[in-house]
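name: query_chain
kind: protein
chains: 1
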Amino acid sequence: MSDMKADGRIGVAIIGSGNIGTDLMYKALRNPMLDVRLMVGVDPVSEGLARAREAGVEASADGIDAVLRASGIDLAFDATSAKAHLAHAPRLKEADIFAIDLTPAAIGPGVVPSVNMQDQFDIPNVNMISCGAQATVPIVAAIARVCSVTYAETVSTVASASAGPGTRQNIDEFTRTTARAQREVGGAATSKSIIVLNPANPPIIMRNTVYVEVDGEVDPQAIRDSVMAMAEKVSAMVPGYRITVEPLVRDGYVTTSIEVVGAGDYLATYAGNLDIITSASVGVAESYAKARMAKKQRAALAD
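structure:
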């Protein structure tokens, strides 16, 4: 790992030059804490690598080998596939490069920035779970902090046009890891998650439905207030995130709906499913950079 720059920025590489990696690059380039030095893929003529070069970012088709050869890389986003990340993770760890995994590989702990980003940076790898988890886990967690959630069921519907080969190859992992996150991060006792690829034309924007069963004493206003406060927290990082159906609390059940409109950095605004996971990933990277800066400052004061 390289020394942090004097201005606190960290050296960043992006592994994967597809839809997610390219959208991520544009967001990371705007972040003042991140110095995007390299994008890598495996297809020499990929549009993502071409766009990286146009943006002044070094690009390589040598995959992770190019990352490990490069100097000054502190953090790597992995936007490839679950299978690829299983191979990448130990090599990044050995190189002392902090990994933010955007695949469903789930090697490291699942992170949803609005819920559990604290105390995640003493480990070598964190997992962004899935776009569905980033959209729905905050709402489950918001309900769970004011009452007991015995069951959470979430349905994420995305435009078929926004789901690339990597997403399609990982549908099973997507549903399993999203459901697990409803329990491990969201606080539900049991859970189920579903993804729907909608082929409608024009493409629909990302829509999510959250349905939970609650137990014990229930305060409907407390649930609504908690959900709306959480949605505001998420939208500070993902401006296109909003509640479309405010929480309906009735007979021990809570139902609400969320939509996510993308920023249009790379793909059309209907691709909110990409936007929410790339935005969340950049948020985690920024927090990691700030944590490193604070640690360095504490060490300097101790000396």
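note: The chain has ten helices and eleven strands.
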